[in-house]
Design a protein that fits this description.
The chain is of the alpha/beta class. Helix content is 24%, strand content 27%. Helix 3 (162-179) packs parallel to helix 4, helix 7 packs across helix 8 and helix 8 runs parallel beside helix 9. Bound molecules: S-adenosylmethionine (SAM).
Length: 669
């Protein structure tokens, strides 16, 4: 069963949430200015544009996790450089990182970030999907032990035309450079599909003189090729903002000597086993040799020192770290999740306690998870709601565990308490975090999924190499208009410009959109008039999914529903989820199960997690209780008792299903 984590909110915390300026849009300049790049060498591509001014959008706080104990333990002095507009907490942004990074620059983070760790899409040409299973049910129609699968959910698409990809990365790299402090470092993870181009981009933006390393991450898994060398490494490029000033904690990342080398440590003193070495290495913790026996002096005339085995060896630029194992505790269901061990190395080496670590391609939250465990402050961002939900759940579990552990420690002796300042397990910089939205991506992030469904239903063949058109339908070219806005004359103008740039292109065009502005009809009439006159060869047809009888049926969405009883008895609030139904999950199950009809006896198998806010104020959801089952097969509890705040209050219950759909039920008690 899931572990319900009860966390009582203090009145003061409540006030903080209410008066938090970020719950309202943060009003800031409309644009930020970016310095030019370092220049040489310079890569060029079709449509390369410098990034000079970036519009700045406000951020709205949508969720906050402040469990009991979170505010007591923070060392305020370590937060002096933190902008007042934000709570002293981890920050998780839902949005396109270009806009989020511009927002951070305009809101007090310029030059404050010590470490940027990014693992962007690699231009792999793939859709990354998360396999979604229902929780813990052994359905009647299923073989015992099997779980129902609700199919695959696209988390993000990594299909780019080369030029778009380079422009995308170029712009983000420029923004990272502005955010980095002078002692800061950027780690960019990629593979050999784009490594050569990304290195050129990095040289251009950061300056080749700031290149630190190309680390090879080696792993043994994957690879079944019999015609090429199997790829068993990825690349991590490391650039300093200003080489020579960068943080590099060499002693935190020394490696253990191999068994073979250990044999060379033949001597022993009160500090442990050592060998005699001939010269000192700057930055090394080795202790100068004293009282050497004469035979040693003969062997090592001049400066000699004792090199101790336990100090470990200097770190190297190739790391052998296995991919995340399916059964690992850290495993989420998010595709492309990276191992925590990788992030431990990076964060330990290139940041200190309380430093700000930023990852704006956060995915399953690995960077934030390790930063939280290593006592760093962190900022994460992702455009995908599934990633934000996964990261939020992961951080809730880590912080709750940390609070439990450190509360226990606090009641123990001073000696044991000092132990928590151990380098590898420093005190957390924060025990809370807040989730923001920069622009509303709820619709846009479903674009990938919707495009895929649309292609499937209409029968469009995707074209992964065309930078403008999304595919073909028979002989016709297809353009899909993002589903967050109706087709407008502006979209049609873009199609016209694209066709102008391709003089020989005489294929007809199909435009797929969710809806259509009236003005678009006038534009299309004019286009058809021109076509009749022979001025343009391409016929343009529109499939408007919202009203299209033939193709539009798949977009009808019946929202998930919940029946929840919320009652109050004096100082206690009782929440009981009586039922939950997701028509989308049921529909997907039907499609998957063929002749076997799905049997869901317990609504809880459709639910991923439950969160409760006992004093809901309508915009920010303050998590007073979170029920995030630890194992994939565990179920949420469904019944909760919580302390009630004084006076009448609004209780909100947020239920997130296995497909990431959220239902919020509120009641005044
Ligand atoms: C390779 S994954 C990161 C995986 C992560 N390192 C982990 O350990 O889980 C890349 C992530 O970048 C996100 N992403 C892609 N384009 C983005 C954009 N423009 N803004 C923010 N996030 C983006 C994707 O949604 C995806 O979660």
């Amino acid at each position: 069963m899931g572990q319900a984590r009860k966390v009582k909110k203090k009145t003061t915390e409540r006030k903080t949430a209410k008066t938090s300026t970020v719950a309202e849009p943060v009003v800031k300049p409309k644009e930020i200015t970016i310095k030019g790049t370092k220049g040489r060498p310079m890569l060029t591509w079709v449509g390369k544009r410098p990034l000079r001014n970036v519009p700045v959008f406000p951020a709205q706080e949508i969720e906050r996790f402040t469990p009991e104990g979170s505010s007591l333990t923070i060392d305020e002095n370590k937060w002096n450089d933190w902008p007042d507009t934000y709570p002293k907490a981890g920050l998780l942004f839902h949005g396109d990182n270009k806009e989020v990074l511009a927002h951070l620059l305009a809101n007090g983070f310029r030059g404050k970030v010590k470490l940027v760790c990014i693992d962007p899409p690699f231009d792999s040409g793939a859709d990354y999907v998360r396999k979604v299973n229902l929780r813990g049910i052994q359905g009647k129609a299923r073989i015992e032990g099997e779980t129902y699968t609700v199919g695959e959910l696209i988390q993000y698409t990594d299909i780019w035309a080369n030029d778009n990809y380079l422009q995308f990365m170029f712009e983000r790299l420029m923004l990272f450079k502005e955010l980095l402090s002078n002692e800061g470092t950027l780690y960019l993870h990629c593979d050999d599909t784009k490594a050569h181009l990304l290195r050129c981009l990095l040289d251009e933006v950061f300056g080749a003189e700031n290149f630190m390393n190309e680390v090879l991450w080696l792993f043994r898994e994957r690879g079944i090729s019999k015609t090429t060398w199997n790829r068993k490494h990825n690349n991590i490029f490391v650039y300093a903002k200003s080489l020579g000033n960068q943080i590099f904690n060499v002693n935190s990342v020394r490696d253990e000597y191999s068994e073979e080398t250990k044999k060379k440590f033949k001597y022993e003193d009160e500090n442990g086993r050592y060998q005699i070495r001939g010269r000192n290495i700057p930055g090394s913790p080795v202790r100068q040799a004293d009282g050497l026996r004469p035979e040693h002096e003969e062997m090592y005339p001049g400066l000699t020192y004792r090199q101790y085995m336990e100090d470990g060896q200097l770190p190297v630029d190739w790391w052998e770290i296995p991919l995340v194992n399916k059964a690992a505790k850290e495993r989420t269901t998010y595709p492309t999740q990276k191992p925590e061990e990788l992030m431990y190395k990076i964060i330990l080496a290139s940041s200190n306690n309380n430093d700000i670590v930023l990852d704006s391609f956060i995915g399953s939250g690995t960077t934030a998870a390790v930063a939280q465990k290593l006592g760093r402050r962190w900022i994460g961002c992702d455009i995908n709601k599934g990633a934000i939900q996964t990261t939020s759940k992961r951080l809730q579990s880590i912080i709750t565990e940390q609070i439990e552990k450190n509360t226990k420690k606090a009641s123990q002796s001073k000696l044991e308490l000092d132990d928590k300042n151990n380098e590898n397990e420093p005190s957390p910089a924060q025990y809370s975090f807040a989730v923001y939205r920069v622009n509303d991506y709820d619709l846009q992030i479903q674009h990938n999924e919707a495009v895929n469904l649309a292609c499937e239903h209409i029968g469009i063949t995707r074209n992964r190499s065309d930078s403008f058109f999304d595919g073909t339908l028979g002989k016709r070219l297809v353009k899909i208009i993002p589903f967050n806005h109706p087709l407008s004359p502006l979209d049609l103008e873009q199609i016209k410009n694209e066709l102008n740039a391709r003089p020989g292109e005489d294929r007809d065009i199909v435009v797929v959109s969710l809806g259509k502005e009236l003005a678009a009809d006038a534009w299309l009439e004019e286009w058809n008039r021109m076509r009749k006159k022979g001025d343009v060869p391409n016929k343009i047809e529109v499939i408007e999914l919202r009203t299209d009888q033939k193709y539009g049926t798949f977009i009808k969405h019946e929202p998930a529903r919940a029946r929840v009883s919320i009652s109050r008895k004096k100082d206690n609030i009782k929440v009981e989820i009586k039922d939950f139904i997701s028509p989308t999950i049921i529909e997907r199950l039907k499609q998957q199960s063929g002749v076997l009809q799905p049997q869901i006896d317990d609504w809880r198998s459709m639910v991923d997690c439950v969160m409760i806010d006992t004093a809901y104020i309508g915009d920010v959801f303050n998590i007073t209780l979170s029920d995030v089952p630890e194992k994939k097969n565990d179920l949420v509890n469904g019944v909760y008792e919580l302390p009630a705040p004084g006076g009448e209050t609004t209780v909100a219950v947020k239920i997130i299903d296995m497909l990431g759909e959220e239902v919020v039920v509120t009641s005044d008690v």
